[in-house]
Design a protein that fits this description.
With about 220 residues, this protein is of the alpha+beta class. The protein folds into two domains: about 1-30; about 35-215, Glutaredoxin. It is built from five helices and nine strands. Helix 2 links the parallel strand 5 and strand 6 (about 115-120). The N and C termini lie far apart (about 55 Å). Pfam families: SCO1-SenC.
């Protein structure tokens, strides 16, 4: 009889441990990596670490959106945002990319903490009226999604030096080379890059939505 009691106790103990482990697993918070350079090698680092001060961040910028409003880095202070690059006359992937980003806009339409920022890579051609027309075509919500134009050099510099656009193709570009990338980037509240996705793939946009929800849990 004592043997049976010992076996029963052992079984109950194992069940309790298993349940406890399952509960702990459910309470673990997934942390997104940081991206510091054009290789897009993920780096996991504690924000309390001294090395966190060396994490790459998006620098100051100033552009004009589809409503003729000046949009700066301060527009995104304390916000999570999604950045990409396009041009309104693009006959191919830009329309697919913008259409896919509409899924992200829809997912967070009522969440003021989530914004989108699309930079024109043909700013000399993409005037404010053209951006406005393009915005209407894709049901862009004013204040939620900014389509911006500006000085070509400023856009290309921030694209390649801050967002690492084009650089992942393995060839160093100069300022005269046309900028073309399908990458969509997730930027956190502190202006750090936390995710890189292919904007032409709808499945990647679903991953982006999931990662935004994960990022929202961070302070």
């Amino acid at each position: 009889m004592q043997l049976y009691r010992n076996i029963a106790c052992s079984c109950l103990l194992l069940i309790a441990v298993a349940c406890g482990n399952h509960q702990n697993a459910n309470t673990i918070t997934r942390h997104l990596p940081f991206y510091n350079d054009a290789s897009f090698t993920p780096v996991w680092i504690d924000t309390a670490s001294a090395n966190y001060r060396n994490i790459h961040t998006i620098p100051d910028f100033s552009f004009i959106n589809q409503n003729g409003q000046i949009i700066t880095n301060h527009t995104f202070d304390g916000k999570i945002y999604v950045a990409d690059f396009f041009f309104t006359s693009c006959p191919g992937i830009c329309k697919k990319l913008t259409s896919n980003l509409s899924l992200v806009q829809k997912a967070f339409a009522n969440d003021g903490q989530i914004l989108l920022l699309s930079h024109s890579v043909t700013p000399d051609n993409d005037s404010v009226p053209k951006l406005k027309q393009y915005a209407k075509q894709f049901d862009v919500i004013d204040g939620k999604w900014h389509l911006v134009t500006g000085e070509r050099k400023a856009i290309y510099d921030i694209a390649r030096q801050a967002y690492f656009a084009d650089e992942d193709l393995g060839e160093k570009k100069n300022e005269n080379d046309f900028l073309h990338t399908e990458n969509v980037l997730l930027i956190d509240k502190h202006k750090c890059i936390r995710g890189v996705y292919k904007g032409t793939l709808e499945v990647d946009m679903q991953h982006l939505i999931e990662d935004i929800n994960t990022l929202k849990q961070e302070p």
